[in-house]
Every structure is written in C-alpha cells, then in structure tokens.
Amino acid sequence: MNKKVIFVLKGIGLVLILFVALFPLFWMFITSGKTMTELLKIPVTLWPEDFTFQSYYEVWVQKPFPQYIANSLKIAVVATVLGMIVSSMAAYGFAKFRFPFKRGILMFVLVAQMFPSTSIIIPLFSTYRSYGLYDTHVGLMLLYTTISLAFSVWMMYGYFRGVPKELEEAARIDGCGALKSFIHVILPISKPGIAAVGVYAFMCAWNEYLYSLILLTSEQNYTISIGLSRFITEFGTYWNQMGAASIIVTIPTLVIFILLGKNLIEGLTAGAVKG
Amino acid sequence: MKKKIVSVLLAGCMTITLLAGCGNGNKDAGGQEKPAEAGSEKVTLDFWVFGGLSEEPVVFQDLAEEFNASQDKIEVVVTAQDWGSRQEKIVTAYQAGDETAPDLYALGPCIEDYGIKMGIISPIEDVLPGIAEQVKELMIPEVAEGVASKDGKMWTIPSWVDLSPYMMYSIEALEAIGLDENSVPKTWSEFKDAAEKFAAAGYTGYSVPMSMDNYSDVNNEFNYWNWQLGGAPMNDEATQMTMNDEHAVTTVEFLKSMYDAGTFSKSAANETYMDRHEQFFGGKCATNIGYTYINGILTDMEVPEDFEYIMAAMPVPDEDMEVDEENAFYRMVSSNMEISVSSLSEKVDAIEEFLQFLIDQNFWHKWVTQVGARTPVDIASYEDETLRAETEKVQPDLVRMYDEGTLMEGVKPKPAYGGVVEVQTTMAEYLVDVIQGKYPSVEEGLNELNNACQELLDEYSNE
After folding, report:
1. Three-state SS string across chain B, please?
2. CATH number for the domain formed by residue range(s) A59-273
C-alpha cells in the first residue's frame, strides 16, 4: 500500500514538473495562433477562438526571418565544430599529459567561465572594431567558440580521464603517436561526450543575444536572437508573431535533442561522474 | 599548497588583464594623448545613423560618397544602425573610448539623455560655433531654437521634423457636402457637423481606429483633441493620472457624440490606424488624422493617382469650451536624425569640413527630393524659387502653411508619458468602451479608467 502511495505521489510530482516544463511551449504555440485582438482580451483564452497561421506567414514571408535563421545556423555550426575540435584537443592534453602548472591552468580555464558577458563587452567592442571583426559573422564565430570553450574543456577532461589507460597503451604499442591515438582510439569512444559538448556549444551560439546585438549592425547579418527582439517595437509588441518566430526557432534545437539526446545525457553524466 | 598559490595567482592575473582591457585607449605607450589627426594620413570619420524610413540612411550614405569623392583627406564611413538597439550600441561605443567610438551620430531626440545626462555628445555651438551660426541662419527659427537647442545653446542639427497631427480631408468628400479646400471645418462643432454630413453622404465621417492591435493609436486620437484643451493623460512627473479631469471628459464626450451620430465606420472596433489610411485613400473615409511623414508610409500603399486631398490644421475648440491656455497646444514637433558630434572625437577639423559640405549641399532638401516625406527644416525649401517648387510638389500643404505663417504655430515638443505599457493598453481599452457607450456616463467610465491606470502607475512606481 505504501509503495502504491509513493508511486502515485511520484507520478503526480512528475506530471507537475512536466506541466511546468511544457506549459511555456504550449503557451507560445497558442499565442502564435491568435490575433492581436484576442491576445489582449481579458479573460485570456486557453485556445485560439480561430486558430490562424497568419503570424507564421508574416514572419516567414514578410520579414527576413529565413535570413536570420540562415545566419544563426551558419555561425552556430561553425562555432560548434570549432569548439568541439579545440575543446576535445585541449581536454585530451589536460587529461593525458603531465606538464607544469597543469592544475592551475585548468583552474584558469574554469575561472574564465565565471565572468559575466557584460563585463567584457566594452573591450570586446573596442578590439573587434580595431581588428575589422565588427559586423562580421567570423567575429561571432570566434567569440562563440570561446564562450563555450571553458565548460566544454572541463566536460571533455572529465570524460577523457575515464577512458582506460590500457586502450591508449595498446595504441602506442601498435605504433600510434599521441595525435593518432587521439584521433583513432580516443575520439571514437568519446562520442557521447563530444555530442554533449556539441549540443552545449550549439545552444550557446544559437541563443546568444547581447554580443550579436552590440557587434552586428547590418540587417543582413542579424541573427535570430536579434530578429526576435525586433518584434518589440516603439508602438507595441507583436506577441503572436514573436510566438510564431519562437516556435520556428525552437525546431532546430528540438531536432538536435531528438537525434542526440541519448548521447547528450550519457556524455553529461559520464563527465560529471568521472571529473 | 604550491598548486593552490599558483592557481590563485593565475586567477589574479586574469582579473587584472580583464580590468586592463577596460582602460582608456586615448594614450600611447608613453602615456601621452594621441594627436587628433596625423599630418598626411587620411582621416576617417565614423558616422552612425539610427533608424528612419528606409531611404533616410541612404541619403547620408550618398552624401558621404559624394564628399569622399570630392577630396582625399577625409573619408566618411556611414553605418546604418537599428533604432531599437541605439542605447546599447551608443553607450558601449562611448565606454570603449575614442579610438573605436563613432565621431558623428544621426540620432533621435538626444540632447537630454545623450548630451546633458550622459555626456556622449557635445553641443555643436561649443565645438563648431561657425557651423552653428550658419545653421541658425538657414533653419526655421522655431526648430533651431526649440528642437535643436537647450537653454539657448544649439546642440544638434536636425535633419527634419515631424509635425502632427493634421486633419486630412478628401476633396471629393468635401465637395459632396458643399465644402471645398478653402472652407474646411475650423472648430470642433463645425467638424462634428461636417462628419455627420459626410456620413449622410455615404462616407465614414470620422472614425477612431479602435483595434487593440495598435492600442497606442487609440490613445493618440484622444490626445490630439485633448491637448488642444490643455489636457493630458497624466501629470508631467507621470505619477498622477488625469484622465477624469474636465478636459478629458469634454474630449471623450466629443468623440462619443460622433460615434453616437454614426460617423464612425462599422468596423471601427477592429480597425487600426493603417486601416483608416487605406480607407481614406480608397475613397471610403472622408477624414484622416495624419502626420508629415505620411508620404513615407504612402510609398508602400496604392493611392489612386486622381485622389485629391488636403492636409489642414486640426479643428480647434469652440469659443465656449474651457481651455487651459498655458498648457494647450495644437501640434507637436518631433525630430530625428539630429546630427550630433561625439564628445570623444578630436577630429574637429574633419567634422567641420564634412558638416560644411552637408550645409553647402543643403542636405535638408533631400527629404523633399529623395525621401519624399517629413517636414523640411531649412528656410530655402520654402523660399528659394526652385527648391520651393520641388517642396510644393511633395508637401503643398506645408508650403501653404509656411506662407500663412501657421506652420510652426502652437507647436510643442512631443510629450512623453512614461514607459509603462500596461497603463497605455488599459487606457486604450477603457477609452474604447467609454466611446462605445458601455458605461452609463462618460464621467463614470473615465473615473474607472483613471483608477485602474493609477493603480498600475502606483505599482510601477513602487517597484
């Protein structure tokens, strides 16, 4: 009896958590299907009186949202790939080699994660203007690679430390140097960790707003985060269009989680345990 | 222990590096101030232009190209920036220091915030007195002394102003009720009378667009009439709502009386300001409240070539109406793309040369010939024979009002009523309900409106 009660209570708890997690998505979806008049009505309606895809049309056809999405995809993918390469190589170095001040440098990398983005925006702006990276996608790619680097290095470091030494030793016996054993032995078995790092880096780049706001000026260079903010205008907020745009923007992230979710969880937890 | 010390030292080094990155970039390695302009090197002027109609930044880009082609000592680089992110971009650029901050801005009303409060721009009269003198001679005095100046000192060079509101009348509709462009309604009661006649003749006489899609339009329509009585939705400090005072009651009673008389369109409750534009230019609506940037909007709208209209002054309160003369005004002026000099820039000579070029080109007139919208602020656009002819083609009513001496009559800077959106939406919702007769009386409805908005104001004041 007690077990049944606990089971039911757990179920209720899970349903509540699920509700809290999914309700914003549901609200975003129904907002996208309402007219502005219905959105501002009191009491609010839990489902549109007459669901319409007009907002999706306006966002996709009348606004340059496809351009924003293409820009964000380009920047996020490059930053993710670069981040995965650099962080896995750095983490392998930390995990498998001994060198002076290794611990200190690792701590240095962690401390870098703790600085708020607003604290470096001014010198970053100055640097980017001086080096011709202002209003460029290359500038953002480099920046987003760096943003996710600290956490990615630490996560991969924990993962690589869990890889048995014997595997590497076997590779060395077969004649592999450090680089070859990294590429042919370590990387293939570290796919979950790399997937986790990739998803994290992608999310950082995809959702980032402040740096792209300050460092981009041309409309053709804008990312989706800036695009979403442009629904808030001097004359009001176009909530329905913002909802539609948000749904569209969520799709790539959902796809990635569906495809790589299992690897992500495995990679995150493996890194957490073995770190 | 040794490792911990090393870790702490490394963290400390990084912190110092971070702070060093925020240091002043003005000085060279020896700590000396860098010279503003190197002898024979080309000087680059960075010019950030914020917002505007799509053609407006292009005006500056074209002028910059012409200037760059005319000489080889200075290069002006124009960057069109998004209006919405002006605060973040300008403040960041200013904090980053003079090497990367722009030299010139074309910005909205900026004297109070960016000039006096933050010191990001310097008064043109201090930096370039010769240019300021010229601008004062060439610009309409009310603009030079009002919009562009503070406490008698010129700060900026406005590219244009918007004057609003005006009442637009369809000539066809006027003729249908026995009026013409020389006999438009002058007072509120004349206007109401004409609106009823327009309705009887098959037009929408006068209609407030009451859709919540653009709630600010509802409030604007109310304000355009209420300001003439000296009323306002709230006090200057934006702490006290005044939507149930005698002026507000008079105004809403006036609007409601037209609604009750059937001058509104059948679907007014769901119409926006743009819907009314379309109805007006589609010949269905006899009247339309407009602004002087309306031409910019019209470029995207299909307006029949043979459609004739007149932009006239708003009808004024009847003689027997209570007017607070001290606070009453009939038209508001707002400016944008005010050319402002960055307080960090030391390229004074180059800026002077570029601004002189703009003045010599009479860049203000580009808003007639190239943009085709807004109110020109230079006297030449109204008095020079050739330029006047061009202005008359695009803005005939402004030229007429200039000749009459009424262009800037009763003009005040656009009031700001705080930034609380919920107050604005609540006010609009109640106004629509009161106009549509959902309350026993206008006073009762406005009392409820006032109380509801006051609660919101108090809430935000306490946060």
Report:
1. CHHHHHHHHHHHHHHHHHHHCCCCCCECCCCCECCCCCCCCCEEEEEEEECCCCCHHHHHHHHHHHHHHHCCCEEEEEEEECHHHHHHHHHHHHHHCCCCCCCEEEECCCHHHHHHHCCCEECHHHHCHHHHHHHHHHECHHHHHHHCEECCEECCEEEEEEEECEEEEEHHHHHHCCCCCCCCCCEHHHHHHHHHHHHHCCCECCCCCCCHHHHHHHHHHHHHHHHHHCCCCECCCCCCECCCCHHHHHHHHHHHHHHHCCCCCCCHHHCCHHHHHHHHHCCCECEEEECCCHHHHHCCCCCCCCCCEEEECCCECCCCCCCCCCCCCCEEEEEEEEEEEECCCCCHHHHHHHHHHHHHCCHHHHHHHCCCCCECCECHHHHCHHHHHHHHHHCHHHHHHHHHCCCCCCEEECCCCCCCHHHHHHHHHHHHHHHCCCCCCHHHHHHHHHHHHHHHHHHHHHC
2. 1.10.3720.10
